[in-house]
């Protein structure tokens, strides 16, 4: 039997299998397995769409507010850990809300809620977070 990572890309190529997956799960699988053509918030003209730009601005504000004198790599690691936890613990409960929950005011979760609510893919890998935090365009990613 083939390992899961070899079976999943083959299944993703079939339209019927891909349409059965929820959007966030499909995005997670694309990122985790490295499937070609993964959507990363890049619009049709090659530039970032409005949702990705909003998410990026929110993530930069989060880093400046809560981790001001910390290297970018450390900021990215901390935000990544927070976002991963938020994605699995709180986002399933918060996704239907139209306003930010009061308990998140003046916390990093306030920014995470807004970033997730932007509609752009979240949580992001550390590498993408570093690129966003230094303000480099997608083409200059390392």
Q: For the terminal residues, how far apart are their CA atoms?
A: 35 Å
Helical percent range?
55-70%
Number of domains: 2
Following the backbone from N to C, one meets helices and strands in this order, namely HHHHHHHH
> Any idea what the radius of gyration is?
16 Å
Subunit organisation of the chains: single chain
For the largest beta-sheet, the strand count, sense and barrel status come to: none
Overall form: globular
Number of helices: 8
Percent of residues in β-strands: under 5%
Return residue spans where pLDDT drops below 50 for at least 5 consecutive residues. 1-21, 35-41
Structural class: mainly alpha
Mean pLDDT: 76
Number of distinct beta strands = 0
Summary tags:
2 domains, 142 residues, mainly alpha, 0% strand, globular
Quick overview:
With 142 residues, the chain is an all-alpha fold. Helices cover 60% and strands 0% of the residues. The chain has eight helices and no strands.
Topology:
Elements: H1 4-13, H2 15-20, H3 23-33, H4 50-66, H5 72-89, H6 91-94, H7 108-117, H8 126-134
Helix pairs in contact: 4-7, 5-7, 5-8
